[in-house]
Design a protein that fits this description.
The structure holds 2 protein chains of 2 kinds.
Chain A: E1 2-7, E2 13-18, H1 23-29, E3 48-52, E4 55-57, H2 66-71, E5 73-74, E6 79-81, E7 85-88, H3 91-95
Parallel strand pairs in A: 1-7
Antiparallel strand pairs in A: 1-2, 3-5, 3-7, 4-6
Chain B: H1 24-30, E1 36-42, E2 53-58, E3 69-74, E4 86-87, H2 93-97, E5 103-107, E6 114-118, E7 126-131, H3 133-137, E8 142-149, E9 155-161, E10 170-174, E11 180-183, E12 196-199, E13 204-207, H4 213-216, H5 222-226, E14 233-238, E15 243-249, E16 257-262, E17 271-275, E18 280-287, E19 290-298, E20 315-320, E21 326-331, E22 336-341, E23 349-355, E24 378-380, E25 386-390, H6 395-401, H7 404-408, E26 411-418, E27 423-426, E28 432-433, E29 443-444
Antiparallel strand pairs in B: 1-2, 1-29, 2-3, 4-5, 5-6, 6-7, 8-9, 9-10, 10-11, 12-13, 13-14, 14-15, 16-17, 17-18, 18-19, 20-21, 21-22, 22-23, 24-25, 25-26, 26-27, 26-28
The chains are: A alpha+beta, B mainly beta.
Cofactor (chain A): [2Fe-2S] cluster
GO molecular function (chain A): 2 iron, 2 sulfur cluster binding; metal ion binding
Keywords (chain A): 2Fe-2S, Electron transport, Iron, Iron-sulfur, Metal-binding, Transport
Chain lengths: 103, 460
């Protein structure tokens, strides 16, 4: 069991225990709703920010550009915690990556 | 709504939803003005933690609830991104095969879940069936987009990616009972996919290209265009053989060819496709057994103080009037609807424009609700006199270009069209505000009518 702390923009925190499963699967099993779309790592709807800890992937997190992945963004739908983790979660997180490409 | 539709050829229909029109002209003559519209309202990617829903909008000016959302059908799960959707049967099918145009197939673009909604009660439709993403990914497909009915009661859905959100996409075929038949096309026949339209009498289908879901779903990045990850080709299929017989490269002028519209005349091989990013309209047609595509409309870029480069119009939707006389399209970023006389197919003639929302249009055209974005999805009344539109394109792209769509929601607006004069006038009394839905501000996308659509019905 690995403990994952989910921190929301309003300061609220949920703590869930991951048992060889994705952060999203653990959260949903414990009744915590996270944003999610494809659930296979390509749409980016669930994008969160890894504040502390290490996560691993069985498949490539296709929705994350390399520069975003390097900055610490992760995909809870396919990310498995390898250590205790703290994630910033919620719909605001993915919007941090949005920019008008021509402005 | 009459319970029995009597046709001019004398035969009456047995039930009120066995709507059918023998020809596009019959649809114009025999249809009644639209009273309800089906429009998806989306919460994916917003601060509202709720499932997307299909809404029923009252568009009957004689109704006490005119311009209001009458009913909502919430999806079972959040995060679908409802987008395009379509009918189980074309309004033409009634005369051909006795099918009922009654069920809406409503895909989740992100979730790959496909919902079936029964509109027997037009004002309070019901979700009756859900095809789960796991059943779809078994066929190595994802990201369902356009739904068209096909001859024989089957239903075809364009799928933009493989199960991993990568290329190639393809087509998923459902039967009349909404069971998955399988993949319609041989895998690898195309790489990118988006919209499609077919003309069965000419044994032809044309499909277009957006990108892999992993490319467009997280958001638009110009580096992906430069890397060739966005489409610029259209594919001409042998409809019966399910094979691509020709691929037409539209080049740099044809980046992101999205909506495909054949003329409604079932014998015609003429059609149009809008290249969203290049902001050009291409006319495709068959000559001497070969299809060709030629650029016939070029929307000029415009300067804007806040933008580093000239701003493209971004043609995101187009509609051909049921009589095939007029072509309308939206410039989502500029904030404009254009109307062209398409009677000379190769030389569309601009007859009118409407500048609302977007970067250059009237930001508050009805006087009581500022717009966050430009006109996007279009739908035209069957008689060609009322043009409706909504303002959201795609959640992640909205957030980049018009973030106000997530915060304040979309609107649905209407222009009155004069087909004699070739003009449009915004109806400033018509406003459907998706910012005021009970669950919170929602994006609004494609518009469909119960009886027939100018953007989906095919005469077999």
């Amino acid at each position: 069991m690995t403990r994952v702390r989910l921190r929301w923009a309003d300061g609220r925190e949920d703590v869930v225990s991951c048992d060889d499963e994705s952060v999203l699967a653990a959260a949903e099993r414990e009744g915590v709703r996270l944003p999610a779309g494809c659930r296979r790592g390509f749409c980016g709807t669930c994008t969160s920010y890894l504040v502390a800890g290490v996560v691993g992937y069985d498949t490539e997190p296709r929705a994350l550009r390399t520069r975003h992945r390097r900055r610490g963004y992760v995909l809870p739908c396919i990310a498995r915690p390898e250590t205790a983790c703290t994630l910033r979660v919620g719909p605001e997180v993915v919007r941090e990556l949005r920019q008008n490409p021509w402005r | 709504m009459s319970d029995v539709a009597t046709h001019t050829d004398g035969h009456a229909h047995h039930a009120h939803h066995h709507v059918g029109y023998a020809t596009p002209q019959a649809a114009i003559e025999q249809s009644e003005p639209e009273r309800v519209a089906y429009v998806p309202a989306l919460y994916v990617g917003t601060d509202v933690d709720a499932p997307d829903r299909l809404t029923v909008v009252d568009v009957d000016p004689d109704s006490a609830t005119y311009c209001e959302v009458l009913h909502e059908v919430p999806m079972p799960h959040a995060g679908d991104e409802l987008h395009h959707f379509g009918w189980n049967a074309c309004s033409s099918s009634c005369h051909v095969e006795g099918l009922e145009r009654r069920y809406l197939l409503v895909p989740g673009q992100r979730s790959s879940r496909i919902h079936v909604i029964d509109t027997e009660n037009r004002r309070e439709p019901e979700l009756v069936r859900t095809i789960e993403p796991e059943s779809v990914s078994e066929y190595d497909l994802s990201a369902p987009h356009t739904v068209h009915c096909a001859p024989g009661g089957s239903i075809l859905v364009s799928m933009l990616g493989n199960a991993d959100g990568d290329l190639p996409g393809g087509f998923l075929e459902l039967d009349a009972e909404f069971e998955i038949v399988g993949r319609w096309d041989p895998p690898g026949e195309i790489s990118m996919n988006y919209d499609f339209w077919y003309q069965p009498r000419r044994n032809v289908m044309v499909s277009s290209e957006w990108a892999a879901p992993k490319t467009y779903q997280p958001g638009f990045d110009f580096a992906d265009v430069e890397a060739g990850r966005y489409g610029r080709r259209i594919h001409v299929w042998d409809w019966k053989q399910r094979e691509v017989r020709q691929t037409l490269d539209l080049g740099k002028e044809g980046l992101l060819p999205l909506e495909v519209r054949f003329l409604h005349d079932p014998e015609s091989t003429h059609g149009y496709v809008g290249a969203a990013l290049s902001s050009n309209v291409f006319h495709f047609f068959e000559r001497d057994g070969e299809f060709r595509a030629e650029k016939v409309i070029d929307v000029e870029t415009r300067e804007h103080d806040d933008w580093e480069i000239p701003v493209p119009g971004v043609i995101t939707d187009l509609v051909v009037s049921m009589d095939d006389r007029y072509l309308f399209f939206s410039n989502w970023v500029h904030g404009e609807v254009r109307m062209y006389d398409a009677s000379d197919r190769a030389h569309p003639r601009l007859t009118d424009t409407l500048a609302v929302g977007g970067l250059y249009g009237d930001p508050n055209p009805t006087g009581d609700r500022p717009l966050n974005a430009g006109p996007q999805m279009l739908q035209l009344s069957l008689d060609g006199t009322r043009l409706y539109f909504t303002t959201s394109l795609y959640s992640t792209w909205d957030d980049q270009f018009f973030p106000g769509e997530a915060e304040a929601g979309s609107v649905m607006l209407k222009a009155d069209v004069n087909p004699r004069k070739g003009t449009m006038t915004l109806d400033t009394d018509f406003l459907v505000d998706f910012g005021t839905l009970p669950a919170g501000p929602a994006r609004a996308h494609e518009i469909r009518w119960p009886d027939a659509d100018c953007t989906s019905d095919v005469w077999v």
